[in-house]
Amino acid sequence: MNNLLFNDSFINGEFYSTEKHFSVDDPATQQSIIMVSDIDDDGVHKAINAAHGAFIKLKATNATTRSNVLMRWFELVMQHKQTLAELMTKEQGKPLKEALGEVEYGAGFIKWFAEQAKRSYGDVIPATDDNHRLTSFKQPIGVVAGITPWNFPIAMVTRKVAPAYAAGCSFVLKPSEHTPLCALALAYLADQAGFEKGAFNVLLSENAKMVGELLTESELVRKFTFTGSTGVGKQLLAQCAPTIKRTSMELGGNAPFIIFDNADLDEAVTGLMGAKFRNGGQTCVAANRIFVQRSVLDQVVDKLAKKVTALKVGNGLDDATDIGPLIYPKAKQKVQELVADAKAKGAVQIGDNVELGGNYQAPLILNGVTAEMDIYHQEVFGPVVSIIAFDEEPEVLALANDVPYGLAAYFYSQDLKQIYRVSEALEYGMVGINEGLISNPVAPFGGVKQSGLGREGGHQGLDEYLEEKYVCMKI
Predict the structure, then answer these.
(1) Pair (94, 31) in one structural domain
(2) What percent of the chain shows pLDDT beyond 90?
(3) What is the active site of this protein (predicted)?
(4) pTM for the full model?
(5) Catalytic residue positions?
(6) Whole-angstrom Cα distance, residue 174 to residue 204?
């Protein structure tokens, strides 16, 4: 099917097989794509040791050398973008056109950090007396371990591995057991691009707890990076504490999307469609609570309903598909439970919640959502729009901020003074103003409060993998 389809973990530049296997399934058909080997304890330790050996070599290389290797990786990913996109659609389910977009987006991180590798600047510090010279410079932190989720199986990997390599760090990756195939393909292409052997290891396992414990307890692992739920992130942070690891965490969100009555309503609805329905709503920055000023509520709902009811649900390999399947049956079950709870508590459904079979979920609008409903407080991770009416700006800001999360927020307004006020008042790490798609490799991605620690992308993304060393020299 695919010349980048592999079924074993990748350690020290070689595939590593075990006797135990598990199935990677196509969410569209619920049929097995391939059986892959499940890593054992010895394999995890072998990967950590391989990464440590690679780090010893890699930290001695110069920035231009690492930059050139990353550029070759970028070129190989782009050369194989169709194959990678098809592989992604098979294991993750998103429409092929979205998968192609993700390959290019993910490759953008590789290219950006290939350039940033040469921009890891230090400082000359003005001396406080005539007898000393003060400087600082940056060095790679060491072996990095990471766990990535299933919803963006390429971009979530490249935005971690590329800056690590650019900084001079090696990496041990545990991808989601639902979407490990893209990670293997990326590691293989990185090896072909000239990565130091052992600099990018991929561990396949259904037992994330076991792998996570071994990675977090290792003294050789000096940095841990995770993208996933806040609950798991808290657990991993606790596990990293005994060895005082550097951590970066991109955790859950509950993104508000605010439409003020002075907004261009057509643009707002178009932006909402992208922010809500990309990847079937299965994104951490998906618009989750849609606040609409009451004076334009009916107009917005009417415009939105026309677009939502026109969406086509189906296999991601079908060109006509707008929304692919949810990742697995429990994801669909969660959406159905949230919808049922909201309707039982007074929300009005727009759209037919028809049973499509398998992992497919029909797109819906729920109007009249309130804080008493579970869907108000939880990430939906599905194609359901929750509409909440509001009257005044202070009211909606209080509602938008009244959650423990602070990843992404969006609002539409044509009032410049309001734009400044609201963008500064929203307690979120990222804010989209009159735009529903805000992710960009050149900008820092990350949240505040319980949505995480650290930033990925931008020049800040490189610093996550560097330590600053201060040097005081007496002359």
Answers:
(1) yes
(2) 99
(3) 250
(4) 0.96
(5) 250
(6) 6
